[in-house]
Structures
1.
Amino acid sequence: MAAVREAARDNLRAEGPAGLSLRAVARDVGISPAGLYRYFDGRDALLTMLIAEGYGDLADHLFLAQGATDLVAESDRTRDVPHAVAATADVADRIRATWRTYRDWAGAHPNEFHLLFGEPIEGYAAPVDGATSAANARMAQALVMPLLEAHLAGRLAVPDLDVPAPAATLLAAEMGAVAPVAPSPAFAALTVSWWSVLHGAVALERNGQFHWMGQDAATELFEHTMAAALAAVDG
């Protein structure tokens, strides 16, 4: 299985999500395509594994960035996370480390990033409430955790919602299942808007929209984008 995972990741990096091929993976592992079906029902099962592992790897990097090593398996704590800070660092610094690491991970794993967040793959549907959902929720937890801490400390302004959207109410309930304190729908909506800013900036860069300005300028633009968002955090 370790060899299959590695070959599948190599195939993903070489061909992109839409070009993932069980036949190619089997060839690289040195078994017949029929033999690969002992482990996977088909391409969809292989994609599900890669998506779940992608979210898991991203979540590990984000947790390590903010010093939450207890939420990462001991064997994964040696990952290279250049922007990591200690768990005792100021919450604003941990948010910055989380955002920078999100961008770093996208740059180091372009095909995995596209697999997780790109256009839907034709013919593929993730299993409902399956491995991909759980891994995605863990990645979301890594993004939201320092924001919730800032909010609970009274350092994050959360605008009131006169009539919360049903989606915000549902998201707040899901957050409350794992958070130490159940957040409000307004906080849930704010986290989505923050992720939209972060992901939008990273996706634009990964899709080549900023190539014309050069890498240094793209990095500077990202830092400005992050600073503007963090202006809402006291300190």
2.
Amino acid sequence: METSYQHSGILLLAFGGPNSLEDVEPFLKNVFSGRPLNPFVVNQVKERYQLIGGKSPLPEITERQARSLQDNLKKRGTLCEVSIGMRYWQPSISQAINTLHAKGIKKILCIILSPFSTEAATGGYNRAVYQTIKEFHQTMIAHFVSPWNTNVRFLDAAADRVKEGLALFSANIRTSVPIVFSAHSLPRPSSNP
């Protein structure tokens, strides 16, 4: 028997990414809050996206996650609208909330897809959600899932990936291979000693 929660929705919140090389510059303007962009930097970023197919895979991955979550909830008897909102791209967080509101959603469970929680990294998601609700949809209620960076399943998955990487090295040097953790891209060694 299906249980329907017609007035509840889930909003997956992600950073966003350009859908084409033409989108790189407007995407970067969003990331840098409209500040002027250095054309050299824009071209470098375009070259990086060109190397991975000319676009960010993040929007499509996030959309697949949303559909998978909605399908799995439905199989368990819960009808719940699952949408995505991108911090720096489309659909924006405001657009996603407006769409949910138009569908009659009154309560939103917000899940920030980044496992890490800092004011700089995730505070913008909270502000964007609450500001949109305050300005346009005062009757809506939003709750955020707690940061999940210490969840044992996440830690196990990260540990498994490290083990997979270390397995690429011969056993006699594996314990001396340095492991570098980086939040974005690959770190560049400093030219200063």
